Amino acid sequence: MKYINHFTLSTGHSRRSYAEEIDKAFLMKFKPIVNNIIKTGEICEFAIKGTYMDIIMDGTDHYAATLYVDKNGQKVPIIVMEGTSNSEKRKMVEEDIKVFRRSAFGDGKVSFILPEAPLIVDVILPEAAMRLDLLMMTGDLSRCLAWTILDPGSVLT
User: Fold this and answer.
1) Looking only at Cα atoms, what is the longest distance across the chain?
2) Where are the domains of the chain?
3) How many beta carbons lie within 10 A of that of residue 120, not counting itself?
4) pLDDT of residue 100
């Protein structure tokens, strides 16, 4: 892939992410962590202290991931990330995000138009305010996760 379209529903921000933005050495360390979370199929400790993640795969070209923080012994979701490299699954991502947005934020009308695939969509939840340190890096995390899952070969070449 040449790029991945990256859309943040919470802010309306959209940009393109290029493979060159991802450090090869970082990807090599990150990939086994991501693969372990996928293999486990459960919420697992993540690479950042006090965080947890789960990743649900739909084939090799579509995923949904949630980053959690610990609050009084409970895992609280702070960001949901969904991505696909398949243009036919883009509509599924759009529907998933609509359903999730309604359940997380109520029925208020928020319109959005997702960019074409390949794409990643981030939904930053209000609970993210508990960890402002993580808010500063959610975009980087989402991009690294997307390249790691959807096309790590483009980063490594």
Assistant:
1) 44
2) 3-156
3) 28
4) 78
Give how far Cα 5 sits from Cα of 1, 126, 146, Å.
11, 24, 10
Query: Could you tell me if 97 and 82 are in contact, meaning their C-beta atoms sit under 8 angstroms apart?
Result: yes
User: How many angstroms separate the CA atoms of 126 and 105, rounded?
Assistant: 9
CA distance 43 to 56: 10
120 neighbors 7 (Cβ within 8 angstroms): yes
Beta carbons within 8 Å of 75's beta carbon, 6+ residues apart: 43, 52, 68, 69
Q: What integer pLDDT is reported at residue 113 of this predicted model?
A: 84
Contact yes or no for 78/134 (Cβ under 8 A): yes
Residue 65, helix vs strand vs coil: strand
Ranges of H-type helices in 47-137 = 90-105, 132-135
| pTM for the whole structure | 0.92
